[in-house]
Structures are given as structure tokens and as C-alpha cells.
């Protein structure tokens, strides 16, 4: 993925015309120059890389200790948590940081609720009072039973 992005996508995006900076949509070379000239920016980029590395490490640890269902649910809650923290920061800082509640916040709240409920339904943490054969024909996979090699040969 990284090789494809660096060798194909980013060079191609350089030639797409855009309204900002000399008519160039994305200037990767300028981004590297900015990283070399601004220590704060380089520090933030490195912090971002390390935070993603730690996030992936802890996600794998959760999946190993608990289940991937827990990891998926925690991942869905991460998005909701970022939004709640932005709202809290806005009102705690008198509008200096964060995001205010606006006319679209209800839509975001409904979207987050649908995302979390969808995760819970898909992973069958919340079961709908519908027969399994109807769910398997419609949208949800039935829980799979694991067979050993001997059981598979006998079946």
C-alpha cells in the first residue's frame, strides 16, 4: 500500500490542478521541504506515527486477550469519543478549542448511534428477535462452528 501510494498516487495527484498554491492540488515535495524546515511539524508527524503504532499494538493485544468483537466495538467508540471530547473542549474553553454543537450535530449523533448499534448487531452482541434462517438469508451471517480435520472428513 505504501509503495503504491508513494510511487503512483502521490505523483499523479501532483499533476491534478487545484485552486491552492500555484494551481497544484497536492505538492509532496513541498511537504517534505516543510518537514525539513519546521521542527514542530516534524515532531507532530513523528508523534502521529508513534500513536498509530501504539494504537495498532494495543488493538492486536485486545484482540489476542479478548476477541476481535471487543476490538471492533472499541474502534467504533473511538470515533464517538473524539466527537464528545471536541464538544467538551469547546464548551470548557469558551469556544477556543473544539467543536460547537450546531444544526448538524443531531445528524452526527444519529450516525454515531447507528454505527455503534450496527457493530453490536453485526457481531451479534445484541440479537434481534427474528429467526436465524431469516437473518442469514437477509443480512447477518450465522455463527460458524469450527470443524476439526477428522470431523470435516466424516461430514
Topology:
Layout lengths: L1 H13 L13 H10 L1 H27 L2 H25 L12 H18 L9 H7 L10 H6 L1
Helix pairs in contact: 2-3, 3-4, 4-5
Task: Summarize this entry quickly.
By secondary structure, the protein is mainly α. It has 7 helices and no strands. The longest helix has 27 residues, at 39-65.
**Radius of gyration, whole Å:** 23 Å
Task: Give the overall form.
Answer: extended
How do the helices and strands follow one another from N- to C-terminus?
A: HHHHHHH
Unreliable segments of 5+ consecutive residues: 145-153
Helix content: 55-70%
Query: Kindly state the mean pLDDT as a whole number?
Result: 82
| Helix vs. strand class | mainly alpha
Oligomer: single chain
Number of strands: 0
Distance between the termini: 40 Å
Strand content of the residues, in percent? under 5%
Give the biggest beta sheet. none
Number of helices: 7
Amino acid at each position: 500500500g505504501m509503495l503504491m501510494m508513494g510511487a503512483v498516487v502521490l505523483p499523479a495527484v501532483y499533476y491534478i490542478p487545484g485552486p491552492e498554491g500555484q494551481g497544484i492540488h497536492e505538492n509532496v515535495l513541498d511537504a517534505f521541504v516543510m518537514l525539513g524546515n519546521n521542527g514542530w511539524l516534524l515532531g507532530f508527524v513523528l508523534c502521529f506515527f508513534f500513536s498509530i503504532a501504539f494504537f495498532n499494538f494495543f488493538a492486536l493485544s485486545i484482540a489476542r486477550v479478548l476477541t476481535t468483537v471487543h476490538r471492533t466495538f472499541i474502534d467504533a467508540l473511538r470515533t464517538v469519543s473524539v466527537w464528545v471530547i471536541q464538544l467538551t473542549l469547546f464548551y470548557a474553553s469558551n469556544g477556543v478549542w473544539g467543536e460547537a454543537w450546531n444544526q448538524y450535530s443531531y445528524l452526527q449523533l444519529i450516525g454515531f448511534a447507528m454505527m455503534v448499534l450496527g457493530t453490536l448487531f453485526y457481531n451479534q452482541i445484541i440479537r434481534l428477535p427474528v429467526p436465524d434462517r431469516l437473518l442469514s438469508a437477509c443480512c447477518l451471517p450465522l455463527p460458524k462452528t469450527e470443524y476439526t480435520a477428522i470431523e470435516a472428513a466424516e461430514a
